[in-house]
Amino acid sequence: MEVLIAVLVVVAAIVWLPHVVWLLRYPFCALNQLEWAALAPARFVLAARRYERFTLRPFVRYLLLPARLCWALLNWLFAAPARFVSAVYWDGLLFSAGAVRDALMQFMLPARGAQRQRRGLTYLVNWFVGAPVRLVSLAKELGLVLLSSAARIVVSTAVPTITAYHGTRFAGGASDIGQQGRWLVGDRQYVGAGLYFAPTMNGALHYANQRGDDAIIVARVSPGWITWPSSWRDGLRATLERPSGGTELARYRPHPFSAFEHPRERWWEMCLPYHREAGTMIRPWRVRGVCVIRSGRPQRLWHGLAMWPSRASEWAVLAASIAFVVVVAAQV
Fold first, then answer.
1. Domain span at residue 153?
2. pTM above 0.90, yes or no
3. In terms of Cα–Cα distance, which of 274, 223, 270 is closest to 250?
4. Residue 149: which of 204, 206, 99 has the closest Cα?
């Protein structure tokens, strides 16, 4: 009896662990805001003013480029300890807590495939028959969670990364993104065809509330080189807010490691441009889902969160990140 009670207590603790970890987010959210500000502090001068009234002249852009490059290099090197602390919470604790909870719930209350539709005695019989297979699957998933969490921490430490939020509906939106890691690239967006995020939950809530059945995807995003409308040429700025301008804007930064930023009424937005993939589903290595928030709490996903890495490009990024961490550790 005592053993049964102990097992139930452990199970209850694991089930509630994601909620407890989520409640501890506030100091890490503050650290995340500092990291976001340090990525490109020029935004508060160049992007905080209306682009219609403020234009950065080409020669000024060229003069600022060396300073921005030097700042990016210094931030990459000296902000690594802060990135590691953030990664331990977001990629380690929060991601692992939710993934372990989902794996354990799948073992206890299986809801995948045909079992999700069964009821009564049929469900009970299949529960016992499938228990050995689910136990093996549980052990496998726990191992994958451990490896994925470690890989995420390494990459988020080596590559400048922030926690960002994406508001959408839960059914067919957040659930699919969380489980498969695939995102739909919008083709008619504010500053280009791409994936949109906000560095705070306020911006994501604005879009989630518009769709009903709201949910917020918490993700780790590696934005790369950031630009703002005030630094674009006149022809590009003229396409802002036009439905037909999304593809042209995204084509302005065709390389795969860039981002656009612009201020909205009460929040900032970030766009990762993918103009060639407009209207299609993609799985970019720069975006790594952490959890799905629904009704203010981490939501269980039937098939669990998508593991990372799982593709060649993701493994390549992980290998490069490991090399960076090893070199830095050797210098210390």
1. 2-331
2. no
3. 274
4. 99
